[in-house]
Design a protein that fits this description.
The chain has seven helices and no strands. The chain is an all-alpha fold. Keywords: Membrane, Transmembrane, Transmembrane helix. One of its GO terms (cellular component) is plasma membrane.
Length: 242
Amino acid sequence: CGVITSKTVLLLLSLAFWAAAAGLTYVGAYVINTYRSYDSFLQDKYALLPAVIILAIAVVMFIIGLIGWCSTFRESRLGLGLFLAIILIIFIAEVSAFVLGFVYREKVKADVQVTMRSVFEKYDGKSEESTIMDYLQEQLHCCGVKNYSDWTTTQWFNATGNNSVPLSCCMQEMNCTGRLDQPQELYTRGCADELESGLQSVISYAMLVILGFAIVKFFGMLSVCVLTCRREDSGYQPLYSG
């Protein structure tokens, strides 16, 4: 019963490797794409390390699934040993990615606050960084770092002298001039909190996916051990002579 159960688990795990390759690729690409959208606000490029690890794992998923499938059917001790070693390496990598994700999830807040303030102060309405700032405010429905009043301290605000914020702060583009004497037409929430919340949510989602696959790998390693030990016990049969 233990052998049949272990074989079933390993075959399902092999199939899961092929499915996981697609899933992990999606998660890793989604995290990287999200960070690239806001890379001007992030100084620490190592924050992408968890996503890179996920993609590296996904690259070898199909091959690993094939090894597990063939080894389980043939009950090859060499193949099962290789499968166990591979699962163990991936398990360690996933745990490392989970820990790194937890560390950088807390670091995002301080990183965003510093870099966003720097980009915010350089706003001139024409540069690439200004375009990114406008895009951020439009997509996240926010205005300023903490709130729309932050614009009053910028050089751009003093240079224009029209007592208004960028049009990207407007809740509706029609009939909105961005003037501060019409605050009901402006987004009231700051972009720092919105960006922090979005990035932390992405990291949290990736961490949950990694944790789920790590648990599956643990049961896979247990099944390999059961199947290998069972084969060792049944390797020799007693001989009876009349």
